[in-house]
Specification:
The structure holds two protein chains of two kinds. By secondary structure, chain A is of the alpha/beta class. Chain A contains six helices and 14 strands. An eight-stranded mixed beta sheet of chain A has the order 2-1-3-4-14-13-12-9. In chain A, strand 12 and strand 13 form a beta hairpin. By secondary structure, chain B is α/β, with parallel strands linked by helices. Chain B has one domain: Alpha-Beta Barrel (TIM Barrel), CATH 3.20.20.70. Chain B is 36% helix and 29% strand. Chain B has an eight-stranded parallel barrel with strand order 1-4-5-6-7-10-11-12, surrounded by seven helices. The two termini of chain B are 16 Å apart. Classes of the chains: A alpha/beta, B alpha/beta. At the A-B interface, helix 1, strand 8, strand 10 and helix 6 of A face helix 4 of B.
Amino acid sequence: MNDRQVAVVDYGIGNVFSVCRALERCGAKVILTGDVSQIEAASRLVLPGVGAFADGMLGLRERGLVEPIRRFARSGRPLLGICLGMQMLATVSEEFGRHEGLNLIPGRVVAVPDRALEGHLQKIPHVGWSALVAAPGAIWSESLLRDTPEGTAVYLVHSFSVVPDDHRHGLADCLYGGHRIAAAMRSGRIVGCQFHPEKSGEAGLRMLAQFLDA
Amino acid sequence: MTSVRLIARLDIKGPNLIKGVHLEGLRVMGDPQEHARRYYEQGADELIYMDIVASLYGRSKLTEIVRRAAHDVFVPMTVGGGIRNVDDVRDLLRAGADKVAINTAVVRRPELITEVARRFGSQCMVLSIEAKRQAPGRWEVYTDCGRERSGVDALEWARRGVDLGAGEILVTSIDREGTRSGFDIELTRAVATAVRVPVIASGGYGEPKHLLEVIQDGAADAVAFADALHYGRAAIGELREHAQRAGINVRMT
């Protein structure tokens, strides 16, 4: 079933309006929902989110969505986590304590380094447009970055980022003060973007269109 | 590295895009949606909407304008003008804004900066400073769209605003706004070196060398353009090429 239908998880956090508009622009039929049965019935799922990790997981837990999202991901249907949504795909976060994530792509969520490699202090949160580079060994064909040339800039707003346990899950990085920061990761049809495709102009819309075609 | 952002600024009065000089002498430029769409297509890195009379006359049509824009604009949008409290911020974010810019209300009640930053994150809270030069190296903050003196020193206010939780500062030079005589480089540099958050320079663009000056000498992290775009004297794409040729790190589109 590929009718470009997509469920966007509504769990009481962040600004989901822009994600829905961008998906609609790409031709999707969007359902914004926090309802377990609608999530279970979806053909693809987007987990958006802005804010603190613990608040995000609490929002999912309070609505009984943790297990349904895990089951969805294991069913092999496409799942895209954006920003905090990508971080929640990981195993554990170190943001304000230690918090368990969905553990769909093993990894840790750690603070973006506040010092550049050369030693000077750099601005946190990391906000703005950064160029995507391929993660070591990553191949972008067959991913939502299929039509995206390396060096394409995307929009990020974050203070934490994921370090996947298995480097083969890395898809794209961006450089901040010389450090590689995970910008996108993938395991099977589970994908996470630290950046906001819905705010990354036409390049971002192309990625969402790829996700809808997957 | 994070690139220098080229931002289209749209000043709004009621339903219209307007343009003034020194934030006064307003002229109607047309439908904001048409302009927003054009600037997005030209490759603007961000849009800033400012309802420039809202703090004088109360609520505005801004929420509706932002909601419409969000259907066609897929880059970050910062929205300001007449924001008084956390509920106003929430409404604008729900309409599709990514950040809010606040001047008058936070000068009157600085704690609002902290309230917005706690609730929505500091990346969402842009401190808007509209400043007029008083003496060499001294600028005073004005509120209510450049009409009211506040007695507050712009540099002290920038530092305090960041301490309270502002994640970015939009610095508008009232002296230069709409004059096409170049940005206030000293003001921009003074603010950019006083704080560790990104600084957006606004007010005064006339020709390409002004763009290079405010980035290279003014240390601006982002630059806002208004009437040059509205009148078609410049397009974002040309500005980007100009910056690129000068070796400035801008987004490739």
